[in-house]
Amino acid sequence: MGWHTLKIIQLPQGNMWIQSTMKKMTFLLRHISRPSSLLHVLIIFCITLKIHQAKSAQFTAVGPDQPVTAIVGQEIVLPCHLSPNMNAQNMEVRWFRSMFDNYVHLYRNGKDQYTNQILEYQRRTALLKDDMVNGNVPLRILNITRSDEGEYHCFIRGDTSYAETKLDLEVAGLGSAPLISVEDYQDGGIRVVCRSAGWYPVPEVLWRHASGQQLPSLSETKSQKGDGLFETENSIIIKHHSNQNLSCCIRNNFINQTKESAVYISDPFFPRVNPWMVVLCGSLVVLFGFLALAVCLFRTRGKLNEEIGTHLQKIYELQREIEWRKSTIHPENLTVDRDTANSFLIVSEDRKNVRRADTRQNVPDNPERFDSWSCALGCEVFTSGRHYWEVEVVEGRFWAAGIARQSVRRNTLTGPNTEEGIWAVEQCGGRCQALTAPRPTPLSLNQVPKRMRVFLDIEGGWVAFFDADTEDPIFTFPPVSFTGEGFRPWLWLGVAGSQLQLCH
């Protein structure tokens, strides 16, 4: 019968799943005798094909297995691509360091965005778009500096899913060519000094004879400057005419590169041997020995003081925890202040739950509302006493919770940390960190907390976080003065779909 004849279309080899399904369809159609049965089979085929397409739409972000190495002053390309290969031109591509909202580079809606770009990366980054159709989204960083070293995250989001990978950038400094100078007479010889700057990590300095023989140096000084790079000064005493022709070699062992300069000292410059110089040389050796011993003792004392300070801090934290556990404190019944919630946040009717939306909500203008960050404050204001409450993570891997000063900036907040008046713990992807200043403190936790307990002691200037399910400590901030101002619960939700709940 002609109504159940199906024409088999030759498909590319890559569509093997569809070809297999078509063969099964053909077998069924050959045994169908009613039109209604044919309609049922076609409906099942369409649904199965749709499910297959939905599954194939998932992707992962892939970066390099090894750290990427860059040299100060040059440029570097950080690789990242989608697997399987697919067009990323209509996706969001976000490169960031430790904070999701403060990004290194952002590509969204088909163009680059610079609103919340980190100041240090402005006019230094470019997303390479030549091969975006195949899922390649590498980032180029120009004029590499020492502070660029560290961890980078490549975050890619499509219509229904997102993926993230991370990579490490290691920065090396290849300094200036060695500058050799003849300084003065010392210890019956000529003191020659080799200087260079702009190295990282600490370089190796060698003196060599023209024959390649290594010569011992007199002294070496290495110091780190404000830009994180090292400068070195190495001296040598030349006493024999056989060492008139020598070179200074400075080597960066991390990138296996060397810079070298040479000098020749003619015969008239060498002094005659003076017996008093021998005595002076011996005295200097003894003096340097005493200096070395003094430096060693000073460093040992400094290390002991540092260890004592660390142990005292741990004892203080344990004492504070014991005081909390002995005292009777009832949990606070908190609610979210809608007037402070960012326009991307949706607050529930009972004001216990807050969720991050895909788009801005229609909310009235209010000077109390957070503008640049998707944050919200609690309605309650604490000015004295001890308090605690619990926050449950309903959904999401990008969130933070803690306390904030009542005067925390709403419109010009550069980043949540203690310098901005915020004490909080954050989950950013697969890791947790305390929002300390000037940079976050990574936390080594057995598991990411699903329910977190926040403790606040106004008089003691103390903020601590615990896993409410296991009672394990998460982080305790160093004590500060909390007098003279009120404090409110603080919440942040990083990406759409994230959801937090204030527990009672």
TrEMBL record:
UniProt keyword annotation of Lyase present: no
Organism per entry: Alligator sinensis (Chinese alligator)
A single cellular component GO annotation: external side of plasma membrane
Membrane topology type: Single-pass type I membrane protein
Ranges where the Ig-like domain occurs: 57-170, 178-266
Annotated signal peptide: none
InterPro entries: B30.2/SPRY, B30.2/SPRY_sf, BTN3A2-like_Ig-C, Butyrophylin_SPRY, ConA-like_dom_sf, Ig-like_dom, Ig-like_dom_sf, Ig-like_fold
Taxonomic lineage of the native organism: Eukaryota, Metazoa, Chordata, Craniata, Vertebrata
Protein name: Butyrophilin subfamily 1 member A1-like
Family from the record: Belongs to the immunoglobulin superfamily. BTN/MOG family.
Ranges of residues in domain B30.2/SPRY: 314-504
Biological processes per GO annotation: regulation of cytokine production; T cell receptor signaling pathway
Localization per Swiss-Prot or TrEMBL: Membrane
Entry keywords, A to Z: Disulfide bond, Immunoglobulin domain, Membrane, Signal, Transmembrane, Transmembrane helix
Broad class of where this protein is predominantly found: membrane
GO MF, one example: signaling receptor binding
PROSITE patterns per UniProt: B302_SPRY, IG_LIKE
Keyword Transcription regulation: no
Annotated TM spans: 276-298
Alphabetized PANTHER family for the sequence: BG-LIKE ANTIGEN 1-RELATED (PTHR24100:SF149), BUTYROPHILIN (PTHR24100)
Xref: Pfam families: C2-set_3 (PF22705), PRY (PF13765), SPRY (PF00622), V-set (PF07686)
